[in-house]
Write a sequence for this structure.
């Protein structure tokens, strides 16, 4: 009986160790977790910098990390890391609802929007309805990794979505390759 209890206790200890190793980082460890994830990510993966009420999604590829920092700080960090990446570049999406919010309805939203677009530095930004973006992430999370960085932001419709694309191979190169392939086959 003692031996059986010892085996069960050892199995539980091993299981807890494995789960702790896969558990998302919280607080100050979020930057290290992002830097650790980034080399593993490629085109079709996503990084989301979310507000504090963003839902915990359950698709198997979705990892949520609590940052404990402001959203704008997290956006800056993600852009800095992606800027240093040799393999991926972001396609930026925001909630389409964001452009309709005003300071009467949501005090502070104009300043947030201005600061966000300043940080985004003129990058093209696509507005998509919030529910549609959540659905896209849910679907992507069935096959691909999605990293969600939750921040302490308390304004609605402020999440920033980065769909990663290949940095060194774009649509023009792909189109030319497909034309060459078509000619070779035909």
């Amino acid at each position: 009986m003692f031996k059986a209890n010892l085996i069960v206790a050892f199995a539980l200890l091993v299981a807890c160790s494995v789960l702790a190793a896969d558990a998302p980082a919280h607080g100050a460890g979020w930057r290290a977790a992002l830097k650790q994830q980034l080399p593993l990510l490629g085109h079709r993966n996503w990084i989301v910098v979310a507000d504090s009420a963003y839902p915990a999604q359950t698709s198997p590829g979705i990892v949520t990390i609590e940052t404990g920092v402001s959203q704008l700080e997290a956006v800056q960090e993600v852009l800095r890391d992606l800027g240093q990446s040799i393999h991926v570049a972001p396609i930026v999406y925001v909630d389409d609802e964001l452009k309709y919010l005003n300071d009467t309805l949501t005090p502070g939203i104009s300043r947030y929007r201005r600061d966000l677009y300043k940080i985004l530095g003129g990058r093209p930004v696509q507005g998509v309805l919030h529910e549609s973006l959540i659905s896209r992430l849910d679907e992507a999370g069935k096959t691909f990794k999605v990293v969600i960085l939750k921040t302490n932001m308390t304004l609605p419709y402020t999440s920033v979505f980065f769909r990663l694309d290949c940095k060194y191979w774009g649509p023009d190169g792909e189109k030319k390759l497909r034309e060459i392939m078509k000619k070779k086959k035909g």
Summary: The domain at 26-185 is CATH 3.40.1650.10 (RbsD-like fold). The radius of gyration is 20 Å.
